[in-house]
Design goal:
Blueprint: H1 4-15, H2 18-25, H3 29-43, E1 48-49, E2 55-56, H4 58-81, E3 90-96, H5 98-102, H6 105-115, E4 118-124, H7 130-135, E5 141-144, E6 153-167, H8 169-175, H9 182-185, E7 190-192, H10 199-208, E8 217-219, H11 223-231, E9 237-240, H12 241-250, E10 254-255, E11 262-271, H13 276-293, H14 298-303
Length: about 300
């Protein structure tokens, strides 16, 4: 079982204060405070800023990732010691972007999830920001655009997600009868995933000199919802190629800019010291991603 002092430290941060942590742990507030103080005394560093809500110090933030790993190792040890017992599934918290979750991720990991009896806690964020989840100890691994490993971590290349600018044929006929022009793009409603999603902004600025704020857009923070908006002629936007191959072949969507594919290179980050289950999960993830993300383009497929 996780050290009682570490349990108290973790609970204070997760619950946002000593009083709530005490209720969560069925202890008195003074008992929780004493355990945290003992941990700080042993480590010789303050771990918490006693604010509202309580925040970790830099030393406390460095400690957090190891607590997540310790819980997994502890659960694996219980399995090893009692191989015939029907214990709880192992929980794996991971950070992932919505487009990966909606496309290649599940086929890549479904075997290891089933065979190892895992339950996944998928924390969804933009691929440019998921590494912060790993640094804060919220997850054991993350899909990110960051190529360099963080301190104490390893990184593995997953592949490239290609994005196409798509719309329905009806939308194209109504808004872009003469193709993509600066004037038409300033009026046609775009679809963006969120306000941190800058792919559309960069495309319009670099290709048409159209700055952010000079075109209308829907904000649809769901990969499936994003695609539904496009199919229903409500807007146009950048969608992963692997998500729209069938729709393009069927003609329900069209590529508005065949020569302007956007690419996003993805990497898998994890702690250097991994449990056996986490190591197998990482291997399956990387292998499955390589199969899905290195597919030929739609044009190449059509030419064969």
């Amino acid at each position: 079982m996780l050290d009682l002092r570490l349990q108290a430290f973790e609970a204070v941060l997760k619950e946002g204060g000593f009083e709530r942590a005490a209720r969560h742990l069925n202890l008195t507030q003074s008992a929780v405070s004493q355990r945290v103080k003992l941990l700080e005394a042993e480590l010789g560093q303050a771990l918490l800023v006693r604010s509202k809500p309580v925040q970790p110090t830099p030393a406390g933030r460095r400690l957090l990732p190891y607590l997540t790993q310790l819980r997994l190792v502890e659960a694996e040890a219980q399995r090893a010691l009692h191989p015939g017992a029907k214990g709880q599934p192992l929980r794996l918290p991971i950070g992932i972007n919505a487009d990966s979750l909606a496309t290649w991720f599940l086929p890549a990991v479904e075997h290891v999830v089933r065979e190892e009896r895992l339950v996944l806690d998928c924390v969804v964020d933009d691929q440019d920001h998921t590494h912060a989840l790993l640094a804060n100890g919220d997850v054991l691994g993350c899909v990110s655009t960051r190529a360099d490993p963080m301190r104490g971590c390893a990184v593995m290349r997953l592949g490239v997600m290609r994005y196409l600018c798509v719309a329905s044929p009806e939308f194209r006929a109504r808004h872009f009868p003469s193709g993509l022009t600066r004037a038409a793009l300033g009026r046609a409603p775009a679809i963006v995933y969120g306000r941190n999603d800058d792919m559309h902004d960069l495309f319009l600025r670099n290709q048409f000199g159209l700055d952010a704020g000079h075109y209308p857009y829907h904000v649809v923070p769901s990969s499936e919802g994003f695609l539904a908006f496009a199919k229903n002629a409500l807007g146009y936007g950048f969608v992963p190629e692997i998500q729209v191959v069938d729709a393009l072949a069927a003609g329900s969507l069209v590529d508005l800019a065949p020569t302007q594919q956007e690419t996003v290179e993805l990497y898998w980050h994890h702690w250097q010291v991994q449990s056996s289950v986490m190591a197998q999960f990482s291997r399956d993830l990387v292998t499955g991603a390589a199969r899905a993300l290195e597919l030929p383009s739609v044009d190449d497929t059509a030419a064969r």
